[in-house]
Amino acid sequence: MLSVQIGAILLVILLGYISARREYKNFTMEEKEQVKKELRNPILVFHILPYIGYFLFFIGLVFKINALKYIAFLLMGLGWIIDGAEIWKADSKQGLILILLGSITFLATTFLALEFLFNFSLL
């Protein structure tokens, strides 16, 4: 069973790599230079947080690791907050909704993690 789980995770990574590589090949030279420039920007890490969270959540589900699921939700919430702040410049309503969803996710996960890790209840 463990080999099937590891195989599923490797398959997801491989499919993501193939998809990204195929898209990159279709770019023009200007688009490729723009992508290279954006990848050098350190703020990009904050925009990737939700996707890292999705991947960690998937791994946590497959291996049944609760602590990894909490970490994944914290990363997703934090990433949504940062993305919402970035979107706020263009569309304040959509940015506010994303910030609220991220904040609720972040706070709820924090409280649930406290209860899970330390057997501590706020209620």
> Kindly state the mean pLDDT as a whole number?
86
Low-confidence stretches: none
Computed over alpha carbons, the radius of gyration is 18 Å
**Helix count from the secondary structure assignment:** 5
Total strands: the figure is 0
What is the chain-wise order of helices and strands? Answer: HHHHH
Largest sheet: none
The shape is flat
Notes on the structure:
With 123 residues, the protein is an all-alpha fold. The chain has helices spanning 2-25, 29-39, 44-63, 66-88, 92-118. It has two domains: 1-40; 44-123. The chain has five helices and no strands. Helix 4 (66-88) packs antiparallel against helix 5. The termini are far apart.
Describe the protein's topology:
Blueprint (H helix, E strand, L loop, with lengths): L1 H24 L3 H11 L4 H20 L2 H23 L3 H27 L5
Helix pairs in contact: 3-4, 4-5
Name some characteristics of this structure:
123 residues, mainly alpha, 2 domains, 85% helix, 0% strand, flat
Short account of what is shown:
The protein has 123 residues and is an all-alpha fold. The chain is built from 5 helices and no strands. It has 2 domains: 40 residues; 80 residues.
